[in-house]
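Note to self: keep these together.
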Amino acid sequence: MTWVLVVLSALLVPISILTVWAVRTITNTDQFVATMAPLAREQVVTDHIAVKATDILFQKVDVQGRLNQALPPKAAFAAAPITNQVQGFVQDQFKTLLRSTWFQQAWDKATRRVHSSMVTFLEGNQLPAGQKAQEIAIKLDPVLEKGITQLHKKGITVFDPLQAKLKNATNLSVTVASKPQVKSIRGVFHLAKTFGWAVPLVALVLIAGAVAVAVDRRKTLLRLAVGVAVVTLVVLGLVAYERNFFITHAAARASPDVTGAVYDTLSHFLHDTLRLTLLVSVLVAVLMWLIGPARWPRSLRSLVGRGFHWLAQRFAELVSKTRSPEASARVQRVANFPLEHASGFRLVGVVVVGCILVFGGNLSGSGILWSAVALAAYLVVLQGVLIWARRLNPRPDGGQESNSPVSDEAAKVPAGSADPGSGVSSAQAPDHDA
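Structure:
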């Protein structure tokens, strides 16, 4: 009975995360808008929209043809390079526009408009019989209208006639899910939406039941944690596979980078929650194993206990005002270590912060600032340790007294005294011929 409850619980915990993600992220309008909002700040997305908007304008207006008509026959060769220059300028204007607050607000409004129809479509409601899946896209025609207005202010009026034609047409959009993608997620979404919050509640009941009826609750929790970790790893693998499928089956005109950004943004909550579940289950499994009666856990607990006992003794020696000669020697050795390796400790701090910046991919202004703050805090703490070490041992060389074989009494012998071993005085011998 316990095994059945453990297996069912291990299966339902990751599945409950999927259902919560579907209910919390996809069906809630405010949460969906907040989830999609970061895409309006992704440069790969805004640059893609800028290129797409520029291409639409130049497809609808033959700029090079108009230049050929306007230029003298001898200057007709300049039409193509001038067109390229104008196209580059228009693209830069769109990039500037898409990095503004206006576009971020327009993106949120467009996302809110598409959400209700997207949920209705994914749930399979109010659709004619036999209708095939359609793609889900966010319409961004206001970007074209705003861009033409900005270009008019810059003196480029060749696109002005398009504004009236763009109001009732769908020209610019970002595809959230293409037809094959919708087909693949529609059934899964409908199933997750149907069960909703019931799955996590059932999972909690099964976990409580498994622990309640178990003879050995520690071993049951260990097995449950291992099972949840294994199933979560499988679900993470399926999410990674689904990402590749999502990018591969994107619309032909969609950029793989943009499609990947859309998928990562939508599945951000899901992916992070699954990783957190994996971490917690592994920690619980390790903890249940450590408190067990097996040989290795007992040996490890004993080793850790001795280590803490040794640290407690050394700490007591450090804070004690009266120490034995052996304890004082150990304290001096401990204090000498940071003093002798101070430069190495500083170098390690700089290298670690540099590696975090380079390999962590956080080379933004805020990332560099916080890394500098962390490095400064580390150096301040290190300096405090060095000051403490100097107080315990003012002389890094150990401060040992001289071990010269000459005794203090010998040092007090007057310069003119006789060497007891030779019987001859160091004073000048008397002149017998005087």
